[in-house]
Design brief:
It is a single chain. By secondary structure, the protein is an all-alpha fold. The protein is built from 3 helices and no strands. It has one domain. The radius of gyration is 20 Å and the shape is elongated. It starts with 13 loop residues before the first helix and ends with a helix. Keywords: Membrane, Transmembrane, Transmembrane helix.
Length: about 90
């Protein structure tokens, strides 16, 4: 288990948002899943798969905005790092 003081780091992970967005995109609109296994429970549709993973269709827009924000934020931090390195070399 992750200590409570490290929980905020999950919000800086692009994988968290990309994974949820891709899974929602994949399973949205799947109305029926054929199941040939007789000894296990199979999800009936895409909504069940998404709910089993504790994801929500309502989060898709926020996931995409968060990904865009992370891209812009990390690019800006990289720019600042390169800029500071340039000024130190003079």
């Amino acid at each position: 288990s992750v200590p409570i003081y490290f929980k905020w780091l999950s919000y800086l992970s692009w994988f968290k948002y990309a994974n949820e967005a891709l899974l929602i995109n994949q399973w949205e609109g799947v109305d029926h899943i054929d199941c040939t296994a007789s000894n296990t429970t199979c999800p009936k549709n895409g909504l069940v798969v998404i709910e089993t993973l504790n994801f929500s269709f309502a989060n898709l827009d926020m996931d995409l905005l968060s990904l865009a924000g992370l891209i812009i934020g990390f690019r800006f931090l990289a720019y600042l790092a390169l800029l500071s390195r340039t000024y130190r070399s003079y």
